[in-house]
Amino acid sequence: MTPACVTCKKTAPEVTIKRCAQCSSTPYCSRECQKADWKNHRKVCGKESAGCSSSSSPSELGSQASPLKGLEKSVTKPFTRIGNGTWLHDRPETDVYRLLIDAYRLRVEDEYKMEGKIDNDSLYAGSGSGLKGFRRFLDCVASHAGLLPSWWHAEKRACCERLGMDPSQWQNLCCAVEKSDIIEHYGMPYFHMELRMFAEKVLGSGIGGQDGTMVLQMMASREVDDRGNGQNPGKFAAMVDLKTMKTSIL
């Protein structure tokens, strides 16, 4: 069943549906509708969001564990993992599905907002869901040897697609997502960078054709090592286009 905005009751493709980033549950079509419903929603939002946190606490995993919530399991050195192609490895199956869906959702949002590019099979073109576009994205992921976990096969891919079409899930292909939603949902100020850099690795280029290799290397170099050394990578949230020398804030 296609989710409807709780305020105006409109559904896709008439409007683009997003979910409250705090509780990951209530659907809205705009900030205006979300604000209009806040008086009622605030009574339940905090209670719902309490159940969304990861089962692993930051104190158990260290300051560089990512993300702080939104997945069943956090990992360390995520940017290093992206660089060596193991970002999706050693994670619960459902977490892999969620990351693939959100990497795709944020990519099409970035292409629309930053490039004015609209995928014909996306929500931005009026489609009821982004499933067709997501399937093409999965094809691209599978074309890179080793990016997907060893347990991935056709049946697991079908499970991933079903999760993306489940209206009860935050990672819903019938709902658009933007940078601020990702940051709030996963509790990390730079988690959107993980999704963007993974998508760049899959598709071969960043938004606008930019190359984020140097930024990825910089982020990875500042992740903590086994002795706990390192810096918080969040302050390096910028992308440099070496051809134009323009810097884009991520």
Automatic annotation (TrEMBL):
The keyword Metal-binding applies. It comes from the Eukaryota. Signal peptide: none annotated. Residues 49-67 have a biased composition (Low complexity). Keywords: Metal-binding, Zinc, Zinc-finger. The keyword Zinc applies. One of its GO terms (molecular function) is zinc ion binding. Residues 49-69 are annotated as: Disordered. Gene3D superfamilies: 6.10.140.2220. Pfam families: zf-MYND (PF01753). This is MYND-type domain-containing protein. It comes from Clonostachys solani. The lineage of its organism: Eukaryota, Fungi, Dikarya, Ascomycota, Pezizomycotina.
